[in-house]
Amino acid sequence: MKLNFCSLSSGSSGNCYYLGNEFHGILIDAGIPATSIRKFLKNMDISMQTIMGVLITHNHIDHIRGLEVLTRKNSLPAFSTYKIWKSILAPHKKISRDCIHEIPLQQKFHLAGFDIEAFPVCHDAPETIGFHICAGDKKITIATDLGHISQTAAPYIKAANLLVIESNYDEQMLVNGKYPHFLKARIQSDHGHLGNHQTSAFLADIISDNLSNICLAHLSKNNNTPEIVLQTLQQTFSERGIILNEQQRISILKRNMPTEMIRLME
Ligand SMILES: [Zn+2]
Ligand SMILES: [Zn+2]
């Protein structure tokens, strides 16, 4: 069986990720316009007909921008918790109710040949979740918006072969930047986003040979650059004496365009 992962877009302007095999695929979040999602998939020879559903992490617009059109025009089933749907459906009345599916927290459900489990993360939305997805013997974890890594979330993150984790801001750039004080405080809080040093230190703690792909995600437009993200991670690993093996890859996910397809199984 093949298993492919790709980020279509990652960052505060929009998040959307694809995971699929040769038969089916799923999306995680739909934070860019549906037209862009369809276009990006088509460019990769992936038909929208093969997409069996979209998993939604929380109600922020950079995660649901394309959801209304995907449910109305493509009748795409969408999966999230009761609390998250409540926070999305009240202000977004045009999302097709027929497509909405409620999922429990920390209980496996099955979609498109994948076993999927949602786990709670700390973020400033009514509820925010990450996803742990099993396909054959491969495990994928996606945790893009979280202020800190809780004891509940950590095991799902540690178990991943492919991990998508945010590295949102460079701590120095945020402190010295133009954002008002309240916004800086929100971003840095336990319910905001993970900074480069936080993410790097956590990765240095958990890295093992099982973690083959680290995808650093949700970079801030104003308080980060891909170069600084990579530099911070490499510096942290080198200080801790961590040397990656030949199979391990680090990807910095792009903000407004797809990142190269990662082939987890050929
Ligand atoms: Zn976000
Ligand atoms: Zn968010």
Give the secondary structure arrangement, pairings included.
Layout: E1 3-9, E2 16-20, E3 25-28, H1 34-43, E4 51-55, H2 61-64, H3 67-73, E5 78-80, H4 82-89, E6 100-102, E7 109-111, E8 114-121, E9 128-135, E10 138-143, H5 154-158, E11 162-166, H6 171-176, H7 181-188, H8 196-206, E12 213-217, H9 226-239, E13 249-252, E14 262-265
Parallel strand pairs: 3-4, 4-5, 5-6, 10-11, 11-12, 12-13
Antiparallel strand pairs: 1-2, 1-14, 2-3, 7-8, 8-9, 9-10
Helix pairs in contact: 8-9
The structure holds zinc ion (2 copies).
One zinc ion binds at residues 12, 15, 60, 62-63, 145, 218.
Characterise this structure:
- The strands form two sheets. Strands 6-5-4-3-2-1-14 form a seven-stranded mixed β-sheet. Strands 7-8-9-10-11-12-13 form a seven-stranded mixed β-sheet, with helices on one face.
- Helix content is 27%, strand content 26%.
- It has 266 residues and is an alpha/beta fold.
- Strand 1 (3-9) and strand 2 (16-20) form a beta hairpin.
